[in-house]
Amino acid sequence: MAFPLRKRLRCFLLFLLLFCVCSHLELSLFTSDTLTLLTYLCKDPKIDDATQEPENCRNMQAQVECFPAPNISCRLQDGREVGFGGEFGFNRSIPCRNVGYSYKVAVALSLFLGWLGADRFYLGYPALGLLKFCTVGFCGIGTLIDFLLIAMQIVGPADGSSYIVDYYGARLTRLSITNETFRKPHQSL
User: Fold this and answer.
1) pLDDT tens, residue by residue, 134-168
2) Which of 48, 51, 146 is nearest to 106 (CA)?
3) Which ranges carry the TM2 domain (predicted)?
């Protein structure tokens, strides 16, 4: 069965795009992390109103559609230049937070029902919730400590997800030093 001319032309253009991008710009076929700035344009992700995070957030990553910027051209080995108008695209991963528990609810439960362990039950710590319930919040001291820990977002949900925080609310980010980050030494005066 012979392919129609349009299908062959599309396959050729797709092959030409992949050949140009992969061989001449030295890029990986499936990732876009090494593309230079302004050579591609990505659409804004669709944001969920309740969580203020991308709707397709899975495992701390969301996918957005990207396309080559207008008038991008590649120079082939034989010297010809081929331009792309944005008809072929790819998906790019962006970081996002997996959310599931409301920060407001957790703080309110800790403040008003912390002595019953309701905050720990809500966040997914049933053993600590039961212990707080049986000891009346560790005689009030555990209630105060838990309220501070939850309010400062040090204690989060047990499943590792983040709190749902209002868009303009106080969202904390933990800073850590790993092999990818380092401390810059102070320069002497």
Assistant:
1) 999 999 999 999 999 999 989 999 988 888 887 66
2) 146
3) 101-147
Q: Which residues pair with 33 in a beta bridge?
A: none
The phi, psi pair for 87, rounded to 5°, reads: -80, -20
Tokens of 4: 């129609």
The pLDDT of 4-26, averaged and rounded, is 52
Would you say 88 and 66 are in contact if contact means Cβ atoms under 8 Å apart? no
CA distance 25 to 156: 44
Is the separation of the CB atoms in 37 and 71 below 8 Å? Answer: no
Name the residue ranges covered by the structural domains of the chain.
40-96, 101-164
- Other CB atoms within a 10 A radius of the CB of residue 51 amount to 20
Q: How far apart are CA 38 and CA 87, in angstroms?
A: 16
The 3-state DSSP class for residue 33 equals coil
Give the pTM: 0.56
28 or 121, which is more confident: 121
Alpha-carbon distance 165 to 110, whole Å? 16
Instruction: Assess contact for 124 and 159: CB atoms under 8 A.
Output: yes
Residue 146, burial from CB neighbour count under 10 angstroms (0-12, 13-18, 19+): buried
